[in-house]
Design goal:
The chain is α+β, with helices and mostly antiparallel strands and 140 residues long. It has one domain. The chain contains six helices and four strands. Strands 2-1-4-3 form a four-stranded antiparallel sheet. A hairpin with a 5-residue loop joins strand 3 and strand 4. The longest helix has 17 residues. The radius of gyration is 14 Å and the shape is globular. This is Heme-binding protein.
Amino acid sequence: MREPLSYEIAHGAALAALEAGRAEGHKVCAVVVNRSGVTKVLLSDDGVGLLGVETARRKAYTSAVSGVPTAKFAAFAASPQMEVAPPHLVDANLLPVAGGVPIVTADGEVIGAIGVGGADDTTDDRIAHQARESVAKIVA
């Protein structure tokens, strides 16, 4: 088993998300969590409201504990199989909305996740993927 997600990697990913958002004219919040969903870093740009902060946290949590991007988790949550047990009834922190991606080692181990909130879900998702890619070589 690898070392857990370091502060340097978590901070680097969160900072990359804020910078990517700014480059596109968006103010976002980025939350990076460890593999258990515990917050390591939260960076929020000026003007991001509580909703952006909370959705970023929950997207990161959802991606870390499920091991998949939240866009994929959202499709699963909307499937007929999940009508019996909607995710929010299983765990109130789960948020099936695009914008969270796992941080994975080269051998496939999930060591954490990043969630982005503050823009629309498509933009949040794109920024989260960019942020994860910014630390991919360090994680490998």
